[in-house]
Amino acid sequence: MDKTVLNKKAISRIIARIAHEILEKNNGSKDIALVGIRTGGVFMANRLHQMISEIDHVAVPIGELDITLYRDDLKLKKEYPTVQKTIIPFDLTSLHVVLVDDVLFTGRTIRAAMDGLIDLGRPKQIQLAVLIDRGHRELPIRPDFVGKNLPTSPTEKVDVQWEENGQEDCVIITHHVEERKQAP
């Protein structure tokens, strides 16, 4: 059974709060850049970019990062995933880069994203902003900015829907039963 845990209004409030927290932690927008992880992180980064521009009247640099080639599970997949473009049209060196994603789960996506960023430059600092932190970390990764901590079971799926994908903004938890392997 699906359960909606955040609606459009709640997501908007969270984006505004995180934008304020980013500016507060970094003493304003100087030397900040936002980098969204494809795909949901890009949508969230664009919204943070817009909100920071409204608050501080400055357009901070923004980019998009595809982590496909940095994933540690490529050999486990049956089909090779489609590689998309990484678009970071600025030098990362000496910037406080806020890496943005919609859901933080095991931490493996963020590890891959950090590898990707470091291949592109040497940020002064990498901070992490996420809409949902659902727990179940497999790596020692912790977000700096969290929209909502959402404890989940491993059999639940957190689905963030964005208007940019033609859906209404919301976060839904779906319970799904994993297939058990039959003993030989």
Written overview of the protein:
With 184 residues, this protein is an alpha/beta fold. The chain has one domain: Rossmann fold (3-Layer(aba) Sandwich). The protein is built from three helices and eight strands. The strands form two sheets. It has a five-stranded parallel sheet. Strands 1-8-7 form a three-stranded antiparallel sheet. Helix 1 (8-25) packs across helix 2 (40-56). Residues 179-184 have low confidence and may be disordered.
Poorly predicted residue ranges: 179-184
Average pLDDT over all residues? 91
How many strand segments?
A: 8
End-to-end gap: 32 Å
Let me know the largest β-sheet: 5 strands, parallel
Briefly characterize the structure.
With 184 residues, this protein is an alpha/beta fold.
Write the layout of secondary structure elements.
Layout: E1 3-6, H1 8-25, E2 32-37, H2 40-56, E3 62-65, E4 96-104, H3 108-120, E5 125-133, E6 145-149, E7 156-161, E8 170-175
Parallel strand pairs: 2-3, 2-4, 4-5, 5-6
Antiparallel strand pairs: 1-8, 7-8
Relevant terms:
Rossmann fold; 3-stranded antiparallel β-sheet; 184 residues; alpha/beta; 27% strand; 5-stranded parallel β-sheet; single chain; 8 strands
